[in-house]
Amino acid sequence: MNTFPTRQTRRRKFLAVATGVALASVLVACGDAAPGSSNGGSSTAAAPSGPWEFTDDRGKKVSLPQRPTKIVMQVNAAATLVDFGIKPIGVFGPQKTTDGKPSPQAGDLDPNTESVGSEFGEFNLEKYTALKPELLITIMYGEALWYIPEESAATIEEKAPMVAIQLGGVSAAEGIAKFAKLAESLGADLNSADLAKAKQEFETAGAALKAAAAAKPGLKTMVVQGSKDALLVAKPDFFSDLNYFGKQGLDMVAPTGGEAPSWEELSWEQASRYPADLILNDSRDFTLPQAEMAKIPTWAELPAVKAGQLGLWHPETPMSYQKLTPVIRELASVVEKARTDVVS
After folding, report:
1. What are the per-10-residue average pLDDT scores of the chain (344 residues)?
2. Which GO terms describe its biological process (predicted)?
3. Number of domain units in the chain
C-alpha cells in the first residue's frame, strides 16, 4: 500500500527539515532506479574476518568483534553501497514513488528488502529489532540523521551501533569517496574490474562536463522545483551533485535569500529574480510537471523557457559511480547544446 503523502505535504516536510538544519548551521546533499538482485540475506560479498572498527562523520568510533554482515541502511546509502557490493538486510526511507515504481534513490536495491519505514518520522522499532541488526548506516545533513526520528534515535542506536556519513557541504566525488571507504571496511574490493571500469566512466563523464562548461563561459544555470504555489530555487552548495557540477566549472545560480540552506522559496510573481540561460527542473514525481509550469505566465516568460533551454535535475541519485555517471553525461549533453546569450 502506498503511504506517500501529497506533493504539498512532502514539500512542507522537506522545507521544515531543511529549515531546522539551517538553524543548526548545516548544509546537505541528496538516478534512475532499477530492480536489483536478491540480497541473499547477507550484507557483504566477503566473509567477516577479525575485529571491525570504523569512525563515522560524527567522530563516533564503532568497534565490533567481527565485520558486520547484518546491516540496516537508509535507502540512499543502501543503493550506494549495493553498487559497491554491500547489501542490506533491511532499509528505511522512501523505496517507491507515488505510482508504486522504485524510487530513484533506491537504485538497484532489491525491492523485496525488508523495510522498517518509508517516511520522515517513521521507523518501526519492532521490525528493526526482529532483524537482529549488527549495524545501522545512514547519511547526515549537518547534525540531522536522515530518516532517523530524533525522539527515538537513542533507542535505535541502543539496538545496534550506528554509522553516519556526512554529505553536507561535500561534492558528489567526495561523497563517493566516503562511501568507498566504508564499503571497503565492510569487505568491498575497490580494485575489482567492475568498480575500476565504473570509476573510469565516472571520471570520463566528469571531464566531458568540465569541457562542456569551459566551452560555454557565462552560461548561467539555475536549478528549480515548482509547486502550485511557489518556485523553489536550489542553493548549489546544499546538494552534492550541484556542488560537483559547480566544481566542474558550471556557472550555477546561487540564491542569497531564505533561511533554509537548500532552497530560496519565491512566489511565481518573483520567478524572474535570478536571470538564467539554462534551467534544470527537479525530476521527482511530487514536483509540478513542466507542462503545468508552462501554464504559469511568469514562468513561460522566462528567457530560458522561451528559448527552450530546459533540462532535468535528478537530486536523489545515489552516491555511486554507476548512478552518477549517466546523470553527468546527460547534463554535459544539455550544456553542449545550450546558448550563452539567452540572458545578458
Report:
1. 33 43 33 33 55 97 98 98 98 88 90 92 94 97 89 94 93 97 98 98 99 98 97 95 98 95 96 98 93 97 98 95 98 98 88
2. iron coordination entity transport
3. 2
DSSP category for residue 191:
T
CATH of the domain at 284: 3.40.50.1980
- The domain of 310 spans 196-337
Predicted TM-score (pTM) of this structure: 0.85
Do 73 and 208 lie in one domain? The reply is: no
Tell me whether residue 180 is in a domain: yes
Q: Which three cell numbers mark 328? A: 553527468
Cα separation values, 260 from 9, 255, 279, 336, Å:
17, 11, 21, 32
Residues counted in the chain: 344
Which domain-ending residue is among 146, 166, 192? 192
Among 84, 83, 111, 85, residue whose Cα is nearest residue 97: 111
Residue 252: Cβ within 10 Å count: 20
What pLDDT is recorded for position 237? 93
